[in-house]
């Protein structure tokens, strides 16, 4: 191991010097302890397995579950456990997947004797070994991955590294961020990061491709949750008050829409945007997942006449990315970043008038849930009690969602990392 220390509050170690990760489809190696048909509630020692964390991959097609004895990977459609790795040394409080590749970022739980919570392990499961690690003087709050970047979130600072050589690219100071709030764009031609700013209720947006920073005063209270579209052009935020969710254009900071979860204070656990940017899902400690209809439409130069109130071009495909080509090129200084986003005039409420949810689903157990959009107007929900739901909503009439699937993938008592 070659240790590279720096005057900042972290050290970086890479095995055999700087190694490029080998990207491959995520398949269990021969020495993985994997038995999808076995008892999912006991580990290699036969003791109880407790859930420490759950996290989506970047396209919400699968999720990782960190346990007190390792981690497990689940596919969402169809639902099935696809991989697990059990460890005697303890569990992982943070697991970040890189789409469906063999690359994972792992942060140990507090009881992990081998991997402490102040160390990030970049794990290549194709090679069954660590290809890099980052050590800090304080606990890691979150890790986010792009194909070209590793982002490590501490309580007051965020570090951005180049994936191929693990060199530090950027460091960002934030307000106290115990939740590790941070989100990234994931299209190849845009590199956008959003995180809390240095003021209460402020979001800092870094457009790395444009070398531009945008500060958005999103709320009066502290930021509790945030997410972006795959290309980083839209940002959705909620505050610790938990009553309003706001959608912004990340290029100029314009507030595009506001929706209302309720009138009582709530703890927002997650916000999700559908791939076509027609819907927004919000989960909270009130035991309800709310679905909102979005009025923002994506318009590229060659498709502005095709966008209608009922049929928006997919946000994450060519219509949106083609309009960004000029923005990310070196000559983009004079481009009009607002041209890629528009309102459907005549259907928007007034600026100060927030909209209520279009559809909703009431969850039977009080626990922390996170939601995402599946195919054909479905929402998938994963709970920290080891539950998985698939629900459908009526895109015309809304109302109560219909439960299509329920799986208890882990019978567990929720434990802190």
TrEMBL record:
<dbReference type="GO" id="GO:0080025">
    <property type="term" value="F:phosphatidylinositol-3,5-bisphosphate binding"/>
</dbReference>
<dbReference type="Pfam" id="PF21032">
    <property type="entry name" value="PROPPIN"/>
</dbReference>
<comment type="similarity">
    <text>Belongs to the WD repeat PROPPIN family.</text>
</comment>
<dbReference type="InterPro" id="IPR015943">
    <property type="entry name" value="WD40/YVTN_repeat-like_dom_sf"/>
</dbReference>
<dbReference type="InterPro" id="IPR036322">
    <property type="entry name" value="WD40_repeat_dom_sf"/>
</dbReference>
<keyword id="KW-0853">WD repeat</keyword>
<dbReference type="GO" id="GO:0034045">
    <property type="term" value="C:phagophore assembly site membrane"/>
</dbReference>
<dbReference type="GO" id="GO:0061723">
    <property type="term" value="P:glycophagy"/>
</dbReference>
<dbReference type="GO" id="GO:0032266">
    <property type="term" value="F:phosphatidylinositol-3-phosphate binding"/>
</dbReference>
<dbReference type="InterPro" id="IPR048720">
    <property type="entry name" value="PROPPIN"/>
</dbReference>
<dbReference type="GO" id="GO:0034497">
    <property type="term" value="P:protein localization to phagophore assembly site"/>
</dbReference>
<keyword id="KW-0677">Repeat</keyword>
<dbReference type="GO" id="GO:0005829">
    <property type="term" value="C:cytosol"/>
</dbReference>
<feature type="region of interest" description="Disordered">
    <location>
        <begin position="1"/>
        <end position="21"/>
    </location>
</feature>
<dbReference type="GO" id="GO:0030674">
    <property type="term" value="F:protein-macromolecule adaptor activity"/>
</dbReference>
<protein>
    <submittedName>
        <fullName>Transcription factor WD40-like family</fullName>
    </submittedName>
</protein>
<dbReference type="GO" id="GO:0000425">
    <property type="term" value="P:pexophagy"/>
</dbReference>
<dbReference type="InterPro" id="IPR001680">
    <property type="entry name" value="WD40_rpt"/>
</dbReference>
<dbReference type="GO" id="GO:0000422">
    <property type="term" value="P:autophagy of mitochondrion"/>
</dbReference>
<dbReference type="GO" id="GO:0044804">
    <property type="term" value="P:nucleophagy"/>
</dbReference>
């Amino acid at each position: 191991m070659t240790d590279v220390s720096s005057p900042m509050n972290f050290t970086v170690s890479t095995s055999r010097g700087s190694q490029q990760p080998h990207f491959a489809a995520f398949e269990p190696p021969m020495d993985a302890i994997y038995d999808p048909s076995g008892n999912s509630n006991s580990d290699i020692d036969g003791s109880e397995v407790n859930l420490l964390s759950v996290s989506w991959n970047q396209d919400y097609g699968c999720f990782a579950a960190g346990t007190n004895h390792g981690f497990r990977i689940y596919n969402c459609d169809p639902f099935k456990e696809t991989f697990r790795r059990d460890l005697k040394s303890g569990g992982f409080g943070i697991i970040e997947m890189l789409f469906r590749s063999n690359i994972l970022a792992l942060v140990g739980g507090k009881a992990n004797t081998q991997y402490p919570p102040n160390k990030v392990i970049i794990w290549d499961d194709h090679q069954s070994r660590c290809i890099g690690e980052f050590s800090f003087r304080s606990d890691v709050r979150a890790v986010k991955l792009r194909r070209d970047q590793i982002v490590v979130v501490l309580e007051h600072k965020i570090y951005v590294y180049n994936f191929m050589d693990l060199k530090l690219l950027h460091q960002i100071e934030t307000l106290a961020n115990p939740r590790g709030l941070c989100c990234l764009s994931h299209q190849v031609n845009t590199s956008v990061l959003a995180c809390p700013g240095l003021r209460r209720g402020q979001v800092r947006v870094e457009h790395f491709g444009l070398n531009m920073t945008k500060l958005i005063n999103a709320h009066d209270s502290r930021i509790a949750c945030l997410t972006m579209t795959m290309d980083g052009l839209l940002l959705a935020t909620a505050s610790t008050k938990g009553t309003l969710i706001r959608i912004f254009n990340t290029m100029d900071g314009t507030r595009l829409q506001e929706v209302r979860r309720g009138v009582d204070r709530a703890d927002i656990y997650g916000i999700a945007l559908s791939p076509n940017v027609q819907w927004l899902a919000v989960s909270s400690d009130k035991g309800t997942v709310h679905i909102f209809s979005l009025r923002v439409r994506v318009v590229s130069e060659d498709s502005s006449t095709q966008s209608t109130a009922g049929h928006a071009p997919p946000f994450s495909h060519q219509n949106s990315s083609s309009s960004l080509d000029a923005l990310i090129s070196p000559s983009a200084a004079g481009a009009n970043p607002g041209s890629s986003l528009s309102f459907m005039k005549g259907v928007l409420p007034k600026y100060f008038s927030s909209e209520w949810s279009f559809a909703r689903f009431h969850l039977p157990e009080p626990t922390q849930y996170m939601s995402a959009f599946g195919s054909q107007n479905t929402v998938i929900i994963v709970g920290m009690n080891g539950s998985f739901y698939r629900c459908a909503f009526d895109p015309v009439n809304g109302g109560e969602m219909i439960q299509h699937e329920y799986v208890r993938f882990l019978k567990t008592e929720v434990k802190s990392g």
